[in-house]
Amino acid sequence: MRTSRGSIHFAVLVCTAILCNTSTAKSPPNVLIIQTDEHNFRTLGAYRDTLPPEQAFVWGDDAVVQTPSIDSIAERGVICTSFYATSPVCTPSRAAFFSGIPPHKTGAHSNDQPYRSDIVTFAEVLRRDGYATGYAGKWHLDGPGKPQWAPKRQFGFADNRFMFNRGHWKNLELTDSGPQVGARDDKGNPSYNVDDADEQTFATDWLADRAVDFIRKHADEPFCYHLSIPDPHGPNTVREPYDTMFADMVIRPPLSFSMSRDNPAWAAATGKNATLKFNPSLMQLYFGMVRCIDDNVGKILKTLDELELTSNTVIVFTSDHGDLCYEHGRLNKGNPYEGSAKIPMLIAAPGIIPPGTRVDQAFGTVDFAPTLLGLLGKQAPESVEGRDASELFSGKAQQNLDEVAILQSSGLKPSWFAVINDRFKLVLSVSERPWLFDLQQDPDELRNSIDASGNKQVVRELAAALQDYVSKQDASFLHNKIELQLRELTSNEG
Question: Where are the stretches annotated Disordered (predicted)?
Fold first, then answer.
């Protein structure tokens, strides 16, 4: 069949247009997630700016860390002021974070319990869709192995050479046979010692450098990289010059430190915490770890700028849970107090999330995976139970401050639950009568407002939300004591 010259010319124009559109079309957004471990949200300037002075400066008016690089992520995107660890312990919080599934359904319901092999993470969704994926740092979802480099089960993180399962190592090195812990004890075993760690070998720097290497290697294709920094979790040690950077800072105990004797039973101090004395040097070193993290975040952000990737990269800064840092006479985590359970959640997504967005609606780590996939326009797996907040973050939906996040202790049969909206927190446990905190009137969480007559309706609503949640779980999920409390609080006479 003969083809006219006009037809040929038209075909050439069509093909040229297709090629031009293909070559200039914007590639899918990259994803960079920076997750710290046991990080108190008040150490970040972006969060201090959302708080009244007495809450922003709990360790003293001048006891602050400057975090300009992390704060810049908030300025260019969204800051979530009521984001919580679904279960404020390393393994179960991470289990919910990567999967969007409540931790008790993932296999990794408590520290050192392994993920079920059929779990589909957000990284696996992106890997199947053509993303280059990778991970560096602490994983804590493959059982008790320690450090256990490059676990065999990758869960979507194809390049997991620098993933280690457990530990808070301070000195890491890259050898001909792969990564290893650089510090050793007298018996030759891996040690948490800092030793002579410097800007190349200190864990935070070393892991950040692995992220930079990955970004450079995959700059010409869509990538998803997860950087999991094991600080500022203890031991509170850090390399020079951060180890003395805050040595002259006057740091005082938080207001609630001296009131720890009034803690409810679910937060009672035990073991070393029972006789805990305030040690400002531990906080000085904690601040040093945070500042080292911020400087490394700056290094990574500079790399994105240099490669002209910033405008097409979703950047997340978060943590797995908090650290009480002497609030309520406690260190560490594991309970529903704000310092333990509330986490940073900052997301910059150019062209998707308007700069300077603030979200006060309550969410948990179980909501992260569906939200990230929603921001990227991806379908979440059917197994996901968390909420997709992408339309809220992008300004297409309105906030509902009565919406709740539900937290639970670790384990298959949680010993406590917390139901939280932007103002109130209801805590039910097997060891204590129900507690209600009014976070607006009592931000230090010192008083039980459960009996205040004006709170009866909000208590009933929060309890009903928890009742709805537990009704969807296995019959053995709820302790009898908590079931009785729920029944009482949701009854018309309650």
Answer: 174-195
